[in-house]
Amino acid sequence: MSRNVKRFIKFVKEPKEPAAIIGVAFYTIFLLSLISAAYAGNMKWGIFSGSQLISVVSDPAEARDIISQLIDEHPRGDAAALLGRLQLRKTNQTGPVLGGYTLKTALNDTVTSRMRGAQILVDGKAVLALRSREDAENLLSSLKGKYETAGSSASFVENVEIAETMVENISVMSVETALDAVKGGAQKIAVYEIKNGDTLWDIAINAGLSVDDIIALNPGMNPDSLQLGDTISLSKSNPLISVKTVTTKTATEIVSPPVEEKKDSSLYMGERKILAKGKSGKREVTYQVTSINGMESDRQAVEENILEKAEPKVIATGTRVLLASRGSGGGGRLSWPTVGSVISPYGRRGGRLHAGVDINAGAGTAVSAAQAGTVIRAGWYAGYGKCVEISHGDGIVTRYGHLSSIAVSVGQKVGARQFIGRVGSTGQATGPHLHLEVRVNGQARNPMSFF
Predict the structure, then answer these.
(1) How far apart are CA 293 and CA 244, in angstroms?
(2) Under a CB-based contact definition with an 8 Å cutoff, are residues 260 and 271 in contact?
(3) Residue 56 and residue 98: Cα distance in Å, rounded?
(4) How far does Cα 143 stand from its chain's mean position?
(5) Global pTM?
(6) 92-121 pLDDT, tens per residue?
(7) Less CB within 10 Å around the terminal CB: N or C of the chain?
(8) Is 2 helix (H, G, I), strand (E, B) or coil?
């Protein structure tokens, strides 16, 4: 401490007269001015946005010129407003000393809310922004690592690139946040057509949804009455980047025995008899498995070794004709049971087998036996309503459904073309008609083959 300062401190502590007090005041002002001058000599010029120091500058005149240039380049918008609030003033704060192009770049980055970073490009389109190339590389490496396993190779389905460029501060993500964004991607609505054997549970599992999700996406849908060919909406997550992995897997598989059929004229048509049960085999298969985002999308066998050979299952199938089929000599053995033509043929309808033919006839029209035989059913039979069944021997039965009245009884012998009842619409019927079936050993056959 200087001698003058020590003397001043002693003087302040022990003032004796009013004149001395005035002297203290003048001396204080003089000392503060000296301190201020010394302090100002250590200050630098800085550019501030409010109280925030953006940069220390070596040449304030150059800094003013650069700010003017930026104002000309950004005449309007948020950048112009931020430029208008920049201040050039003295400071004792420390910071990077910038000038020229480097200063202009720093100021531009600040006022345009942009920063030097890295973008992830997917098929040429920017989808994510990160702070650096290193972060972008870590992100892509993490994506591959999530699905890679020992012995597998991973690649991206899309063309994925990293571009170092200026990015909006607000769009910059951490690696962890970017991973979540890649996985979530965009929701995509897909239309699915109901196929044979589908259940809502199976569809939901395959789509990665819950049954409740599917019901919510399809207002008015009755999950208990899905029909073949119906379409429903499914919402699927469409990842921003998809990872493909290729690996080889070896599995031991059971081989089902092949089936061989032999014709047998001693058996009636439609009858089957197992001659040899067969035996399952065993094989070792090496597959090349391709997966997309962990879900298997393709499997190709590249090598196969038979460990145990399968033995065939041999089945005899009957060829004996019970009744003369349509077009054969003698005109056939069944008679048309009523007046009218077929309005609904035999075959699959609405996902179910229509086991007979529907013949158009008015209510009350007479129905006759298609062939001589014995009545084995005469009464109400579930959805057939009032129904008659006649056994004609050799395992052949004709069935007449939806009758309005029945004229025969169980056990009664009837002749061909004998009156057995009248056309109606009882049971599950939308209007008057005759439903006719032909069954051979309990199996439905197309009635039109027997007239």
Answers:
(1) 6
(2) no
(3) 6
(4) 19
(5) 0.41
(6) 887 778 888 888 777 776 666 667 889 999
(7) N
(8) coil
